[in-house]
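Hey team,

Filing this mostly as a record. A colleague (T.K.) asked me to run one chain through the structure pipeline before their review meeting, and I want the input and output archived in the tracker in case anyone asks later how it was produced. No errors, nothing strange. Just documentation.

Input sequence:
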Amino acid sequence: MEHSPAAAEKVFGERLELAERYVRHLATSGVERGLIGPRETDRLWDRHVLNCAVVAELVPDGANVVDVGSGAGLPGIPLALARPDLRIVLVEPLARRVDWLQEILDDLGLSLTVERGRAEENAIKRRWEGADVVTARAVAPLARLAGWSLPLLRDGGRLLAVKGASAAEEIERDAAEVHRLGGGAPSIERCGDGIVDPLSTVISVERETRPTGRSRKKRST
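Output structure:
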């Protein structure tokens, strides 16, 4: 496993030691329990942890964040380490991953919530709807992800989906469906200038304000 790069101190500050401990967990028990591929251990910092942490540039102060399909805690745990002001829920359907996440949070002393379930389940929606931000990384194509995530957001809240080279293609293919689901026009944001190379690519979708029942009634009369 590589040593923490200089950029990590800029991102994590006094929480750098916790970030280093998290990376060690990823490289050891994360690999042993199938959350991280063994070939990823030499690029955990740039490709995974910092790549996720820089998404914090797009998250408002004090936001309520729901990280769907959290897996190994990406991007939720790096965001929490970089931004202690955020209130973050990690939503993950697989019990073995939920158990691992809780072990890691306990060891790091982080007060995130781990919720076993899928974002599209009614129980998850009831429990966590009204979020300011929903994050996701390598979970699903944009249209499907929007269908799961937009109901969790307050009006004006934002889906931030960490993507790769397919981002523009996904937007072109799925923008109409995202709009049908209640999202605004998807846009591509680049994060991490001076920290990660290449920059992190994030698709941002705002949940549009829904008309109230009363306003719909007025328009129909």
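Quick notes for T.K.: The two ends are 66 Å apart (CA to CA). Residues 6-220 form a domain with the Rossmann fold fold (CATH 3.40.50.150).
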